Amino acid sequence: MYYWTNESYHGDFSQNKRHGYGRMEYRSGDVYHGQFFKDRKQGMGTQYYANGDCFVGFWMNDKREGLGTMYWMSRGKKYEGEWRTDTPCTGSMIAMSTEEEAQLAQQRQAAAPVTKDAPQSITEASMPKLKLKTPNKIVFAEAVGVRRERFTAEGTAGKPKRTAQRESGTLDDSTLQRMKHAFVALAGGDGPQDAIRPSKMSDLCVLAGMDPAGTEVPPLLRELNAHTRRNALLYFDDFLDVIINFRSI
Questions:
Q1: CA 69, CA 35: separation in Å to the nearest integer?
Q2: Using CA atoms, how far apart are residues 89 and 57, in angstroms rounded to an integer?
Q3: Distances from the Cα of 57 to the Cαs of 52, 60, 191, 212, in angstroms?
Q4: For residue 60, what are the β-bridge partners?
Q5: Residues 220, 214: contact at Cβ < 8 Å?
Q6: Which positions ≥6 away from 247 have C-beta within 8 Å?
Q7: Which residue among 6, 13, 67, 70 is least crowded, i.e. fewest CB within 10 A of its CB?
Q8: Separation between Cα atoms, residue 11 and residue 20, nearest integer Å
Q9: What is the per-residue pLDDT across 72-113, written as a single tens digit (0 to 9) for each?
Q10: Which helix (H) or strand (E) holds 234?
Q11: 235, 194 in Cβ contact below 8 A?
Q12: What is the pTM of this model?
C-alpha cells in the first residue's frame, strides 16, 4: 500500500488494517520490519533509522516496550535492556565489537539503505572505570521491578503493559527470582567467584520450577552454556546477564 504522505507498507492486512507481519517505509527514511496488531507496531520488530542507527526488540502501541537493544552505529555502542513507553529504564551500555558492527551494517544495507548522513562522532568525556564486581546485580533488581510493574498493571489502562510482558518472550519477575535463588543454592553464594558447572544447569532450571520439556528451557540452557568461561564455569554475574536478556521468541 502506498500513502499520499510518500510512505509505503508491504505486508499482512486484516479488516483494512496492518495486522500480522509487514514492512513500513516512513517519509523520514526510517524502515520498520516486524509485527503489527490492529494497525500499530506490536510484537517483535526491527526499526532501521535514517541516520544508520537500529533498534531490535519488542513493541507495544507503536512504542518500544520490554526487552530491546538500541544500536548507535555512529558511536559504536549499544544499549541492552528494558524499555518502558519508548524510554530506556534499566540495562547496560556496551561497546559493539568490530564483527558485530560489520554484520549489522550488512544486514541494514540489505534491508534499508541509509538515506541520511549519520551524525558526526562527538568527543565524549571519559567515564570512570566501573568498580562493581557484580554490576548485573543492580540491573537484575531493576529488571525484576520493571517486569513486576508491567505484569501487575491493573485495569484497562494496564492491559497493554500486561500484554507486552506476556508476549515478549522474556522471563517474568517471579521466574527471574526463582532462577537467582536456585543458582545461589547450587553455587553456595552470590559473589563474583561463585559459579556452577554445565552439568548443573539442568538442575538449576528444575530447582527454579521450570518444566524441562517446556519450549523455553532448551534455548535458555544453550545461552547459559554459551556464557561459560574457559574454565568451564558459569559465574554469577554472567548468569544474571543471561537470564535478564533471555528471550524465547
A1: 17
A2: 14
A3: 17, 10, 31, 26
A4: 63
A5: no
A6: 67, 168, 169, 170
A7: 6
A8: 7
A9: 988 889 999 999 999 998 888 889 988 888 888 888 887 765
A10: strand 234-235
A11: yes
A12: 0.77
